[in-house]
Structures are given as C-alpha cells and as structure tokens.
C-alpha cells in the first residue's frame, strides 16, 4: 500500500474553511484515497473517499490532483467539534486494508 | 446507516484470564471486518483481517494464538485476547468493510481493555 505524508498539526479558525493536505506520490492505479477522523477516545469516523475525481458529501470535499499524487480535504465551515486527528490513507480496493499513519491533528479555535 | 457496534465498551480483567470483544455491523452485512489496536498517543495498528466463514489473516508480528478471531456470521466478528497480560492493555477497535465500490470501512466505538 502506498504511504501518505501529512503535516502533524494545523490550526483553523471557527467558521473558516479547513484545508488539510496529503501527499501520496506512490499511489497506484487501483488505490483509493480515504479520509477518516478520530476524536479522542472514539473509533475513527469515515469522512470521504475518492479514486481520481473530486468528491463532495455532506461532511467535506475531496480534491485530488490530476496526477493523483496529492489530495486536499476541505471542511467548508469548521466548527469546534471538528477538532480531531485526520487521517489520509491510500488503500487497495482489492484487500480493503487500511494502514494508518500519524495523521494531522486539526485544532479549531474560537 | 453503516453503524458498527462493539461490546463491551470497556473491560478490566486480571492477568491470565481471557477476554472476548464483539464487533457487530448493525445495518449492513460485512464479509470482511478488521481489528485494530491503539496505544495512547499512537495511531491505529492493524492486527488482522477477519473474513466470514474462513480463517483470519494476521499482520506480521501479531500472535494468532493469543488474539483469536472468529467471524461466524455476516454481522458478527469476535476477538478473544487469551491469557491477557498488562501489556495487552489497549484500545481495541473493529471496522466493517462496505461492499460498495469504494470498500470504505466503518468503525466501531472501540473497547478499552485494562489488564491488572
């Protein structure tokens, strides 16, 4: 499975958009990009995933570059409840395995 | 939709005893479930892949005789920590894989195990 690189931490002002970057330069053709978040002492929460097209759902938008080597998760209007560790994971649709890295700790501030 | 539950949410047991943790997909069927372990201030570590009706596949370094996994139905997988020791104290989290095109996983709330 391809590895991902994320900044260890980011801050965002409440009400503003939070843009979380992720590099996955070794991604292969059949691998999806998944985003999850984990609030302290809870199980991870699925946010969004994509293969090559940009995706949007009620939680977030996922922008994948044309070469698929990087992506950005966008939370359009961050709230204090969005404070969490955000994981960008590249996973094979064959095995379904997800290998978690260290993620980005997003702190949303009032 | 896509709700996964775990039971118990926390458990304290004595060294040498065994503990069983259940993982259920409540509103979808999951032929594949996964078990993770998470130590404080660390990321999740994949322990094993649980396949309904067949033997689990363990990640390198995970003892299959210590962490027994059974996936007897399309909605239930169990993890039994046998002969638990204090170093097995951790946060155990399961997930169930969607059968949709993206194979995304939905996670349970986790089980906090403390071995005294």
Report on the structure:
The complex is a heterodimer of chains A (110) and B (116). Chain A is mostly beta strands and 110 residues long. Chain A has strands spanning 9-13, 18-23, 31-38, 45-50, 55-56, 61-64, 70-75, 84-92, 104-109. Chain A has a 5-stranded mixed beta sheet with strand order 1-9-8-3-4, with no helix packed on it. A 4-stranded antiparallel beta sheet of chain A has the order 2-7-6-5, with no helix packed on it. In chain A, strand 3 (31-38) and strand 4 (45-50) form a beta hairpin. Chain A is globular and about 40 Å long. The termini of chain A are far apart. In chain A, 36% of the residues are buried. By secondary structure, chain B is an all-beta fold. Helices cover 0% and strands 52% of the residues of chain B. Chain B contains no helices and 11 strands. In chain B, strands 2, 4, 5, 6, 9, 10 and 11 form a 7-stranded mixed beta sheet that branches. Chain B has a 4-stranded antiparallel beta sheet with strand order 1-3-8-7, with no helix packed on it. Chain B is globular and about 40 Å long. Chain B starts with a strand and ends with a strand. The model of chain B has no long low-confidence stretch (mean pLDDT 93). The interface between A and B is medium-sized, with 24 and 26 residues.
């Amino acid at each position: 499975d391809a590895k991902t690189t994320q900044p260890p931490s980011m801050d965002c002002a409440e009400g503003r958009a939070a843009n979380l970057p992720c590099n996955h330069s070794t991604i292969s053709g059949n691998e999806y990009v998944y985003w999850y978040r984990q609030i302290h002492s809870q199980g991870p929460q699925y946010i969004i995933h994509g293969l090559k097209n940009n995706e949007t759902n009620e939680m977030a938008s996922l922008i994948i570059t044309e070469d698929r080597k990087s992506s950005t998760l966008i939370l359009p209007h961050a709230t204090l409840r969005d404070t969490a560790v955000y994981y960008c994971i590249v996973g094979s649709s064959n095995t379904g395995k997800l290998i978690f890295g260290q993620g980005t700790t997003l702190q949303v501030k009032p | 939709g896509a709700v996964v539950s775990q039971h118990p949410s926390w458990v304290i047991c004595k060294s040498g005893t065994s503990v069983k943790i259940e993982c259920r997909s409540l509103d979808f069927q999951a032929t594949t479930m996964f078990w993770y372990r998470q130590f404080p201030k660390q990321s999740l570590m994949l322990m094993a892949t649980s396949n309904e009706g067949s033997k689990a596949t363990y990640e390198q370094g995970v003892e299959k005789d210590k962490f027994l996994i059974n996936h007897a139905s399309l909605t239930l997988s169990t993890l039994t920590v046998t002969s638990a020791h204090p170093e097995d104290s951790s946060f155990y989290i399961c997930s169930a894989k969607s059968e949709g095109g993206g194979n995304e996983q939905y996670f349970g709330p986790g089980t906090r195990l403390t071995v005294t």
